User: What shape does this take?
Amino acid sequence: MEEEKITESNYFSLVNKTVLIFIAIITAFLITGIGLEVKAGIRSLSFLIIMFGISVIGFSIALSIYYKDQNSKTVGWVLSITSEIIYFITLLSSEVKTTFIFAFPLAVLLILYRNRKLIAFQSITMLLIILIYVLKQSRIELSSDLMVMLGGSLLFIPCVIYASKFLRMLTNQVIATVYEVEEHLYKN
Assistant: This one.
């Protein structure tokens, strides 16, 4: 299978396609997990239906935007907002402390959009949700698990922001180099 060549004109189309696929997979795992919790009697069927509904609505909106304009930068925003809603509800209603991990692959995927505002929105929202969770749990018990969760999240956010910044800088340098090479070739 031949790799598709990435150009400035098809970059967002490829990013949107990639992010849509991975978020669909991540969401499928989450919904399957909730389904298993329903089967075990931990969660209600109505919770599963609500989470599935939010997922389908958000994903359908993102998919329809993608089909209208594959290079749309709005797809990332729709997926981010939908994921944050699902994350908020799932994390705050979960008894499992590792549920917070769900947000990290989403944040990494959104780096591909090279959009500071989107990355900041995702990171800050994720941090606020985790802070709410930690505050809620700390009323019950203050544990090293909660501190590791909070510390890891606090360190992850600047890593995502700086990785995005360096990715943008590298991309700009590569584009500038390509233009210089093209100019040099056309002059000769």
